[in-house]
Amino acid sequence: MRASGLISASIITLGAQRALQSVKARPTLDARTLARFVDPLPVPVIARAAGFHPSPVDPNIKLPIYRVEMREFDIRLHRDLKPTRQWGYAASVPGPTFETRSGEPLMVDWVNSLPGKHFLPIDHTLHGAERGNPEVRAVVHLHGGKTPPQSDGYPESWIVPGQSTLSYYPNHQDPAMLWYHDHAMGINRLNIFAGLVGAFIIRDEIEASLNLPKGKYEIPLIVYDRMFDRESQLYYPVSANPASPWIPEFFGDAILVNGKVFPYLEVEPCKYRFRILNGANSRFFHLSLANCQSFYQIGTDTGLLPSPLELRNLMLAPAERADLIVDFAGHAGENIALKSDTFDVMQFRVARGKTTDNSSLPVKLRPFQKIGESESMKTRMLALIEQNDLAGNPIMMLLNGTRWSMPVTEKAVLNTVEIWNLINITDDAHPIHLHLVRFQILDRRRFDLFAYRSARILRYTGPAIPPEPSESGWKDTVRANPGMVTRIIMRFEGYTGRYVWHCHMLEHEDNEMMRPYEVVASIREASNDAVAAPAQEWCVNGQLKTLGER
Ligand code: C2O
Ligand code: CU
Ligand code: CU
Fold it and tell me: Is the whole-model pTM more than 0.90?
């Protein structure tokens, strides 16, 4: 149980234990033996446009175009490791950071220049990864982006080495740190594990007028865990079944920030803005500073909070982001570790002396309007399900009992509001993500699992618990806690077309915990959306309701 202590939330320990049981013994490097804080934190370079390209919506308008090649390369991830093979955008992990402004579109030519063979264990029994499909496939998704469907990175729109795709990102949305990552069907967890991630920052005038820390005082922190073998190579564990090496979750003992293991950052005694992303496959991070100092959260996944929130610790599930202000004033000369529970993540080394801090932390950041529940046109009941084998090992994760390849069951009408009830009957917390839209969390509520399992009766057994302050803003990923119904509300704005929603634990997503959904132009087109839905009648607290009724 070497890695168990690293698991931050008790809610995920069950899954972790199972993952460890299924790990086949193979010599791995014990990351506890790696020296802490010996490598400086790298900051990804800012992506630079290669030229201009006619806009797909108006050829008279020329948009900046970027060209990003996915490449294999070797780099030292820690002073005492040998160079590690990785796959990265522009041969770096994380890839270059995109910087743009709200409403300023850009285009990216994504080029797959990866080798023809994968270096991580593909499970050919998973949908999309069947033998006969090319081993190396890649498709880029801009997570949190309000992107037209053709450019959203549909999991089946992958390209093979030697091919490229041109994507168009309108960026017509509020400022936030989005991220781009691979989304190839059935091997997503391996491609991201190999290094295909990067940050994408959208800004605007209003945010600039807030005078938040900027320039060298604003740094993205992309945090994830990995495991290494004795040769310093990335090690992705396999199950005991050679025909199906998939494991239900990955938890590693080495924590990397911006691609280095346990790095340090030299800071001045003043305010910094850290834009943190949990880029892990499955691990939840529960972050705090070792000196117990507080910090301020100013933004969630997809936007600024109405006002700063003082925190001493912060939970981030895979794919969740937090925009933080940390003030090192008064800590000159201190070394402060960033921890996830008792485990080291990185270290801040605060310089001695004094710095004049010209940045501010305003009391008001950005107005935030709650979407009223009365605006909702449709309520969906969506169960999160885990299928186990006879020994109790998970073999598949499902959304509403449907597999990826089944007909679309969620069709939302453009510009309408819906409420989704995520009914989690599994033992794990699942970070659920929707493409295209941003949402708000309404509440979470315990329910009677037995009544649900045996008779599909949804009986609440506790009060509705409002979201935590740190998630009371715009979100694109929500923790659906075990044994609870998590309700989210969103307006389907932007584009019609096909998108996906899924669990962002990448092992789950790769094994059926992902579904297509559609945004359609009219009610008529949406009306056949219950055809394949397994449950159309529900009993909520003794009242029989049909699917779609509030
Ligand atoms: Cu981070 Cu389907 O995405
Ligand atoms: Cu996404
Ligand atoms: Cu999951």
Answer: yes
